[in-house]
Amino acid sequence: MSLSIPSPADFHVHLRQGALSTLVTPHVRAGGFRLAYVMPNLKPPVTTTDQALAYKSELEKIDPEIEYLMTLYLCPELTPDEIRKAKAAGIVGVKSYPRGVTTNSEGGIESYEVYYPVFEAMQEVDMVLNLHGEVPSDPSTNTCVLNAEPKFLTHLIKLHRDFPKLRIVLEHATTRSAVDAVKALGPTVACTITAHHLALTVDDWAGQAWNFCKPVAKYPDDREALREVIKQGHPKFFLGSDSAPHPPETKSTCTPTHACAAGVYTSPILLPLVAHLLESFGALDKLENFVSGFGRAFYGRPITKETESRVVLKKVSGKKVADRWALGQESVVPFWAGKELDWEIVH
Amino acid sequence: MSLSIPSPADFHVHLRQGALSTLVTPHVRAGGFRLAYVMPNLKPPVTTTDQALAYKSELEKIDPEIEYLMTLYLCPELTPDEIRKAKAAGIVGVKSYPRGVTTNSEGGIESYEVYYPVFEAMQEVDMVLNLHGEVPSDPSTNTCVLNAEPKFLTHLIKLHRDFPKLRIVLEHATTRSAVDAVKALGPTVACTITAHHLALTVDDWAGQAWNFCKPVAKYPDDREALREVIKQGHPKFFLGSDSAPHPPETKSTCTPTHACAAGVYTSPILLPLVAHLLESFGALDKLENFVSGFGRAFYGRPITKETESRVVLKKVSGKKVADRWALGQESVVPFWAGKELDWEIVH
């Protein structure tokens, strides 16, 4: 049994910088993908058109066969003029991180109102707003990593109301509330879902940092909601892996004063993993739209003669996921290391 | 400023066996306590009177100045006759672990009905039933570590209804639901609260295995409920530390296929830690009853001439918690290693 998928597109991926980038960027293609929607949370964050173009050219040097869609990091320095410049330069989106909730988000936003002139310009030139949909934890309001996403949804709803034509993507949804909210909003609002959130619940990251990421995986019923909406073939929901490499020692080891890094790395196995998971809950027939059609449609990135490249998967019986990928001093450990997948890419 | 506490009693502690026991048992006294209610989840578990007495005598060899109250591990081999024998030998309680939810609980219970003859005998001779109040995770019923305790409460309520005179302790409560349920039940039902659950929420163990224990710390509002009931000076709620030592490498490090050990170790700093925490939420005036009076009253263990031993705490400004305690090859890392406490024991 085999499946041929046209030009799979990962609408949320972290390709990092420096030596780590050299290791992980080729994993986009190795994992079966031809398009990477690239996150801007570098050190320093990508906040200008020039930075984004320079970053894109670095990535193209590493692997020129991938279509990189670039993003800017929402921050007070970002102006409506810069938005217009970015749009003209082919930059696709602006990513918003609430302050302090994930890797390199220390410069993230605290309130959206101050960004309304920027959003106005984005709406005008049709750039996409990518939302990390969590509010910061606050014990005084009973806010913690478990309800940070549901509590963010009022912001999403308000942004959509105030900018109905602005295309907004709620990134890496993890809760039934988020799925329901996105379904209820207009056609300019979509949602990415990661591979790992289709597999994990809170039990899987309790004491197991390799499965720990932000947003954290939630209740079984939340996972079920993500699976259901894919099974339904709902066109607003498509893959964004949020594949996030970290040096293995920052994942494996914590001290009493230093926690493990948040992030799950799926790039090198992404398409087989997604096929495996979708098959496990009876949604294999939705694979093509989930990993290519729906996201490309929302972003207005149809497959062209130039970007057409079919990826063939074949059914296998239990192919083991490698324990580690390495290049020079750098290495990364993938999600499901040592476990088995029932699909592999035909080369 | 100083406080004098009469014979503090820890109504839930893991003293382990072998070399680790030799290291940690003296920490009961070092942490300011004079009574230890000892958990039976050894390898193999303590399921007979003879085992419990042998274990007690090992502990007394290590530190004879502690009053050890012994427990049996609820399992199919336990008979009403053994209960009567245990009672006659001075054994105080029987601990029930749901199967597979925490350290060495693989032999735990799946259903309570089969134990009714045992509970009948316990009620008759007045032994205490100690409940690890979590149901096993089951994605098909949306059960996970976050709601395993609320979902257990129906079992608690039924057991109390069926055995109204049986003294039952819901151990290490972590949720508002559990606090409310215990409050609503009759005077034979009480509840222990750990020190660390007064400090932690889910955010603290996300990616930080040193704060990971079972039951996991929950929402800020759940922590608030634990704090509130102590502030109220409610006599059904008293300290059981659930202090659980593990080899440091099993806490600090996980591989993709092997999670970190669940357990937080508080014994060597317990009384100063509890004083520090109670003071932080305005409940220092409840310290004596929380760590001595209420638990002793429920268990019928008043302080006698023989067991009277006042422990004096003094207020200090920021005493650092040691990074590690060691003896020979064994070592343990305490909760809050490297952080500061505002109270210390006067020796």
UniProtKB/TrEMBL annotation, chains A, B:
PROSITE patterns: DIHYDROOROTASE_1, DIHYDROOROTASE_2. The keyword Lipid metabolism does not apply. Residues 76-173 form the Amidohydrolase-related domain. One of its GO terms (biological process) is 'de novo' pyrimidine nucleobase biosynthetic process. InterPro entries: Amidohydro-rel (IPR006680), DHOdimr (IPR004721), Dihydroorotase_CS (IPR002195), Metal_Hydrolase (IPR032466). Keywords: Hydrolase, Metal-binding, Pyrimidine biosynthesis, Zinc. It is an enzyme of class 3 (hydrolase). NCBIfam families: pyrC_dimer (TIGR00856). One of its GO terms (molecular function) is dihydroorotase activity. Belongs to the metallo-dependent hydrolases superfamily. DHOase family. Class II DHOase subfamily. It comes from Gloeophyllum trabeum (strain ATCC 11539 / FP-39264 / Madison 617). Transmembrane segments: none annotated. GO terms for cellular component: cytoplasm. This is dihydroorotase. The keyword Membrane does not apply. Its EC number is 3.5.2.3.
